[in-house]
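Progress note, sequence design subtask.
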């Protein structure tokens, strides 16, 4: 059997197939991203008989119904939604939702005398040479002869030759309905990887659709089992997190959904301003699917929503129905206010004060997956919190979910859910991935980098936040506060000092072992001096009891401050000659602090 076929279909037939449900468009009131000029250009291309690209649809498999009969699967539109929306807006006169979540008409005007299309404006509306809205031409009751007579009369065109020309042009315009679009029909036997590959090869803009995109198309095109409602929960929840000001616009624009209980369950997020964990639709979908179905591959979700029985390899309607229900319930658990806020509290408790401290969104995604999954099993809350805390930090340190996370998600969720006490699997992972060799050697090597957003440096900062450490040479201001608003990242060996003394390689003077947080005013006073010079000022001020830059007034306070910032002994006497030794010593101290921090999470 062919994996796909390519056909031409008339615009009118395509729109009819969508109207009668043969082709399902993912239904969600998201903003129409094309501007009006692109709609105009599309109509002009069709008028000129130019190619306008392919529409790609994916055939759903035929499913066995409960009575034993077979139901022919619909086709789901996976590429071409903007073009279809543009056609229905210009030709059918359908409203679209703009970037402000307001419904509006996109009217395309046409000048038959010049055969020119324009976006409708007051000027074209008042100009008798223009048809102010071409959708009138495609109305079944439109009378070409009457229109031509009236149009020619308004424009002073009395000659039969002129009337004949206008009539021909209007007929050509109306024949847009009969122009063909290329449609690629993908077989249900293709898996997501194959569909993705075909999509990339066909799409001239190089746009990549993710497995989540395909899953969301599958979800939103299903109205029988409420997939379209599940899609709106996900989409609006994520949008409110990014743009809470759009709440009233969406509520007024989608009044039918606003009346549903699902809308009430997501509106809490409008009043929140936390930005530690801001999931997008892919994240919500991945968390919901992984925790509820105990699987990590979104291709499995697409199969389950299609009704696939993994044992018999048949497609059954009852499996599709159950899968849509389970996914709906799982998404509600993900967007649940109590679940979400408790998870944020766990993240804060391990020192995550800002989103930038976690480079991998999938670390946070699996952490939330684990939290909801264990809570759903009724595991003791103390065990859940300990497990999630350690797992989030452990996966940051090991880079477990960097790159493609699906296989690791699949493996980890199955293991965590199979143990009566989830800490048993966690301890097995720690024994292999976080051995003494990791803490004493591998982590020290990982800290040998100039990447400021290194996950290892970020965990070091989390350790400092967790321990309520003060900034370098500061008596009162904590690292936590500096991360939020007041601190500078400072080079302990100032950059200009190093460059002036021959250390000109950026990757060397920007080593993360040379970084520390401190108050802006202290940074200014330190300037570009060697540690030996600016620390001598500190020591002299301690002798006089006048306090130093950050307010430290005695040597014991200074000693504690240097220790909490992992500054090696003898730093106060160091010059450029000691720089490499300093880096090596500080990396070991930073690794030791990170290990102590991790052990405290137990």
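Output:
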């Amino acid at each position: 059997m062919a994996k796909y076929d390519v056909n031409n279909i008339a615009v009118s037939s395509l729109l009819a197939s969508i109207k009668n449900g043969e082709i399902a468009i993912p239904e969600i009131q998201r903003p129409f991203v094309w501007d009006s000029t692109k709609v105009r250009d599309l109509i002009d291309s069709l008028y000129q008989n130019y190619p306008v690209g392919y529409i790609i649809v994916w055939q759903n498999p035929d499913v066995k119904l409960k009575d034993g009969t077979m139901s022919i699967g619909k086709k789901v539109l996976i590429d071409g939604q903007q073009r279809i929306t543009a056609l229905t807006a210009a030709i059918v006169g359908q409203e679209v939702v703009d970037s402000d979540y307001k419904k509006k008409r996109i009217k395309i005007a046409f000048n038959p005398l010049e055969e020119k299309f324009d976006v409708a404006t007051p000027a074209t509306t008042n100009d008798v040479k223009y048809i102010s809205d071409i959708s009138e031409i495609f109305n079944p009751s439109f009378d070409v002869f009457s229109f031509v007579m009236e149009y020619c009369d308004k424009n002073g065109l009395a000659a039969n030759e002129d009337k004949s020309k206008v009539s021909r042009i209007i007929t050509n315009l109306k024949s847009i309905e009969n122009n063909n679009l290329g449609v690629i029909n993908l077989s249900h036997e293709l898996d997501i990887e194959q569909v993705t590959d075909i999509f990339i090869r066909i799409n001239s803009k190089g746009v990549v659709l993710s497995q989540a995109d395909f899953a969301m198309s599958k979800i939103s095109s299903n109205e029988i089992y409420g997939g379209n409602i599940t899609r709106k929960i996900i989409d609006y929840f994520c949008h409110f997190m990014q743009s809470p000001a759009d709440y009233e616009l969406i509520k007024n624009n989608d009044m039918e959904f606003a009346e549903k209980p699902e809308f009430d369950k997501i509106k809490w997020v409008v009043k929140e301003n936390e930005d530690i964990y801001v999931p997008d639709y892919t994240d919500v979908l991945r968390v919901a699917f992984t925790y509820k179905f105990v699987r990590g591959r979104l291709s499995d979700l697409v199969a389950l929503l299609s009704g696939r029985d993994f044992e018999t390899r048949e497609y059954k309607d009852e499996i599709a129905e159950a899968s849509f229900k389970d996914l709906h319930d799982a998404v509600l658990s993900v967007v649940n206010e109590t679940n979400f806020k408790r998870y944020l509290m766990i993240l804060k408790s391990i020192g995550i004060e800002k989103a930038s401290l976690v480079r991998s969104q999938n670390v946070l995604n699996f952490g939330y997956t684990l939290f909801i999954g264990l809570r759903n099993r009724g595991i003791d809350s103390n065990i859940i919190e300990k497990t999630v805390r350690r797992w989030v930090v452990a996966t940051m340190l090991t880079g477990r979910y960097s790159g493609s996370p699906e296989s690791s998600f699949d493996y980890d969720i199955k293991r965590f859910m199979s143990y009566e006490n989830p800490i048993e699997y966690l301890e097995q992972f720690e024994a292999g991935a976080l051995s003494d060799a990791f803490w004493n050697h591998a982590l020290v090597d990982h800290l040998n980098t100039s990447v400021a957003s290194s996950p290892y440096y970020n965990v070091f900062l989390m350790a400092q936040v967790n321990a309520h450490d003060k900034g370098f040479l500061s008596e009162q201001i904590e690292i936590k506060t500096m991360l939020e608003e007041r601190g500078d990242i400072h080079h302990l060996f100032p950059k200009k000092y190093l460059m002036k003394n021959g250390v000109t390689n950026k990757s060397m003077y920007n080593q993360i072992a040379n970084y520390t947080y401190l108050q802006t005013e202290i940074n200014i006073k330190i300037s570009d001096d060697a540690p030996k010079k600016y620390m001598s000022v500190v020591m002299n001020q301690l002798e006089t009891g006048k306090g130093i830059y950050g307010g430290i007034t005695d040597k014991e306070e200074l000693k504690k401050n240097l220790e909490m910032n992992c500054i090696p002994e003898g730093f106060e006497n160091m010059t450029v000659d000691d720089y490499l030794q300093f880096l090596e010593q500080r990396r070991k101290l930073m690794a030791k602090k990170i290990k102590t921090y991790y052990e405290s999470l137990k």
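The first helix runs from residue 11 to 19. Work on this subtask will continue into the next period as scheduled.
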